[in-house]
Amino acid sequence: MSYQFFVETDLLFSFALQSFARLRTDHHLDTFGYKQVQVPIVLNSQGQDLFGRLYDFTRIAGVTARALFIDATELTVAYPATASWPHNKATKITVRSPEFQSALNQLGVLQQEIYSRYDQMMPHYRLETEGPPFQRNGIIIASVDGTWHIYQVITNIQWKTGPATPKRPFEGVVSVTCIRATVKKDADFSKNCRWTTLLQLIEVPAVSEDEAKDAEKVITELMEELRLDTS
Fold first, then answer.
1. Which pLDDT value is given to residue 83?
2. Which of 27, 37, 74, 223 has the CB geometry, 3.0–4.6 Å to 102, for a possible disulfide?
3. Which residues pair with 33 in a beta bridge?
């Protein structure tokens, strides 16, 4: 089993997204489905929507998004230990299509790596400087039982504030949507160089520390190939 998680801040994210779109255009995908998990109001540790600073709100909103990511992708990993969003205080709304079925929970210990990768997308200072609204996208490509699975993960965090009295009310909404598709096993990828190049990157075997010294050269060559590819 192997996987790669391309996040929106990666150099290769646009390439992965274009590859996903091309697979869909060429009818090389099966089993479309989605699952969205939303918290319609972000609460503090006392179960209220009051926060002293934007910093306080964004930290809890970020932790909430991490918890919803686990639910939306159906990973079997523990919820963040610092979560101030307890299930018994915040309302959680789940919308799921009948076709949705996650295979990521079959990746064993790799699930924690996937969660840690998502965690890098949600630094609270980014929420403070870029929102509202704040949106992040990611593409997870995973091989499970000989089938390639593609998951597009979309995170949305929105909020507006009221007057401080002395704490300020925040009308905060957090949602994570996971869109899943599988790649047809008999698909012809001869016209989709992006996809075949992505598979080369994903299936690179682990290397020793000495071999890793040549990694920069390999990556540079691959990036050059990607720039030259106009298919």
1. 53
2. 74
3. 180
